[in-house]
Design brief:
By secondary structure, the protein is an alpha+beta fold. It folds into 3 domains: about 180 residues, 2-Layer Sandwich (Formiminotransferase-cyclodeaminase, Chain B, domain 1); about 160 residues, Alpha-Beta Plaits, CATH 3.30.70; about 210 residues, Four Helix Bundle (Hemerythrin (Met), subunit A) (Up-down Bundle), CATH 1.20.120. It is about 50% helix and about 15% strand. The protein contains 17 helices and 13 strands. Strands 1, 2, 3, 4, 5, 6 and 7 form a 7-stranded mixed sheet that branches. A hairpin with a 4-residue loop joins β3 and β4. α13 packs antiparallel against α14 and α13 runs antiparallel to α16.
């Protein structure tokens, strides 16, 4: 599955949009990257740009944007209210999906190194990418701002992490970092009182509220030995919050920044505000998401609220998202469109029309039956596997709701979740098998006049063939895994659905045998079959075990059907 990271560079220009357009044009030129937002500020003379994509492509787009900014923004002429030290002031990378913070840090440092070495701009690494503890805090890195940069660079303690320790008068310096995803989340209240909204915000935000002697509202403020105000921490970590009144909607809101959704999730923040609001006689009526959110956050919320109802969590993504929207009240003020608010969906929308799995059942059958050689047997095998996993998941979900089996809901929910995961991977492999076929066709079409061209073509054909073997082999592995779920549902699931488990077993067996045919035919075209000899042996063993397992499952299915007669 694709790794995705977000990049949120801040450029020191917010008044001349023609300058910003030149920078964002560089971003949009890079395939695999999508520009999500451009937010200029006239008073700050600063523009925040947001884009997302696959890691290498995001790093390339970020570098090209920084390069263009260094060419067309002159810091000697810059004035603005926001602290800044460079033409590209900050450039954080943010993990979105299928990538760890550690990996994101590596990409951030790679970007920082390139900016420093190729553009001769002093670069400081901050937040999770910081090499030096004092540089984790962006404010420390930016201390003195642009005007103090020349003197700062003469201090050995402030030698840049990358780039020269020399003042670049035109471009200043840049801070490159890796940070957690920030979600801007507003919670709606059934009050117009900003004071009450603020009280709830102070209850939950990490900073909390000022400590007072005696009366918590009018008492004397407590200070430490240095004369600083002492705060009573709130209940939620990595949360900033304040209360305000929204004239447009005629309500007060808790405006929150969730700075690390791995520590405090959207649903945890929402439920805690519900509790604290109720303590003060106020009711939460819904919420509002500002900007975009990762898919995982929505799926986690859906599962959380289903688990509270003791309902199976093994439902598809659309259902989980629907549960999350309704539970959080995200559609109270205006419709919540997942295609516009979930990062992965925004990226995928343009590609969906090209994918086989987004065709109707009839459309998929017609496309297969056409004179085009793809989709072929490999995609069909993957789809058969997906259907087998789907049937097993259906039985698990039905079993979790069976009257009299309430105490077993978690058991069946776990099976349904596993089935959903296998189904989703097999659906992904439906299109990936066709992609592998197209790779071979593209390789065969390469020129072969010179010796260099022949070698390039030979290598491309070999790589494509290896991939065309790896995909159906993975179909075999995943479909075989699904047999575990199918067997469990045949043996212990709702007996009235046992025939569905049996059909699932037939689908999984056929998927494995069909995918095996594709492994063998693609291996036959390799010049050096020794590279896949191990794969071929394992594939044959998987098919043998699958046939045996299918026989066992069908025996169980038929026995149970006889008892129902």
């Amino acid at each position: 599955m694709k790794k995705l990271i977000e990049c949120v560079p801040n450029f020191s220009e917010g008044q001349d949009m023609s300058v910003i357009k030149q920078i964002t044009d560089q971003i949009e030129m890079i395939a695999g990257v999508k520009l999500l937002d451009v937010d200029p500020g006239a008073a700050t003379n600063r523009t925040v740009v947001t884009f997302v994509g696959t890691p290498d492509e995001v790093v390339e787009a970020a570098f090209m944007a920084v390069k263009k900014a260094s060419e067309i923004i002159d810091m000697r002429k810059h004035k603005g209210e926001h602290p800044r030290m460079g033409a590209t002031d900050v450039c954080p990378l943010v993990p979105v999906s299928n990538i760890s913070m550690e990996e994101t840090v590596d990409y951030a440092r790679k970007l920082a190194k390139r900016i420093g070495e190729e553009l001769s701009i002093p670069v400081y690494c901050y937040e999770n990418a910081a090499y030096i503890p004092d540089r984790k805090n962006l404010a420390n890195c930016r201390s003195g701002e642009y005007e103090g940069l020349s003197e700062k660079l003469q201090n050995p303690a402030w030698k840049p992490d990358f780039g020269p320790a020399e003042f670049n008068a035109r471009s200043g310096a840049t801070a490159v970092g890796a940070r957690d995803f920030l979600v801007a989340f507003n919670i709606n209240l059934n009050t117009t009182s900003t004071r009450r909204a603020n009280s709830i915000a102070f209850d939950v935000r990490e900073k909390g509220r000022v400590k007072r002697e005696g009366d918590p509202v009018t008492g004397k403020i407590v200070k430490d030995e240095k004369g600083n105000q002492v705060f009573v921490p709130g209940t939620l970590k990595s949360v900033k919050a304040i209360g305000w009144f929204i004239e447009e909607y005629g309500i007060a809101q808790i405006s929150m920044n969730l700075t690390n959704i791995g520590i405090t999730s959207v649903h945890a923040a929402f439920d805690e505000v519900c509790r604290k609001a109720a303590d003060r006689g106020v009711r939460v009526t819904g919420s509002e998401l500002v900007g975009l959110i990762p898919l995982k956050s929505m799926l986690d919320a859906g599962k959380f609220y289903l688990a509270k109802q003791e309902r199976s969590l093994g439902v598809d993504q659309d259902e989980l998202i629907k549960i999350a929207i309704k539970s959080l009240g995200l559609d109270e003020l205006k419709p919540f469109n997942p295609k516009e608010k979930i990062i992965e969906y925004v990226l995928e929308e343009a590609e969906q029309k090209k994918k086989l799995i987004h065709l109707s059942v009839k459309g998929f059958a017609n496309e297969t039956a056409s004179e085009s050689p793809a989709p072929g047997g490999g995609s069909i095998a993957a789809y058969l596997g997906a259907l087998g996993a789907s049937l097993a998941t259906m039985v698990a979900n039905l079993s979790s709701h069976k009257r009299g089996w309430d105490d077993r809901w978690k058991e069946f929910s776990d099976w349904a979740e596993k089935g959903q995961k296998l189904k989703d991977e097999l659906l992904y492999l439906v299109d990936e098998d066709t992609h592998a076929f197209n790779m071979i066709m593209d390789a065969l079409a390469l020129p072969k006049k010179t010796e260099e061209e022949k070698e390039t073509r030979r290598k491309a054909i070999e790589d494509a063939s290896l991939y065309a073997i790896a995909i159906p082999f993975r179909v075999m592995q995943v479909a075989y895994e699904s047999l575990e779920v199918i067997e469990a549902m045949a043996r212990s699931g709702n007996p009235n659905s046992v025939s569905d488990a049996g059909v699932g077993a037939l689908c999984a067996r056929s998927a494995i045998m069909g995918a095996h045919l594709n492994v063998k035919i693609n291996a036959a075209g390799l010049a050096d079959r020794s590279k896949v000899s191990g794969t071929i042996e394992i594939a044959a063993d998987i098919e043998k075990k699958a046939i045996e397992k299918e026989t066992e499952i069908l025996a169980v299915v038929n026995k149970i059907i006889q008892t129902l007669s």
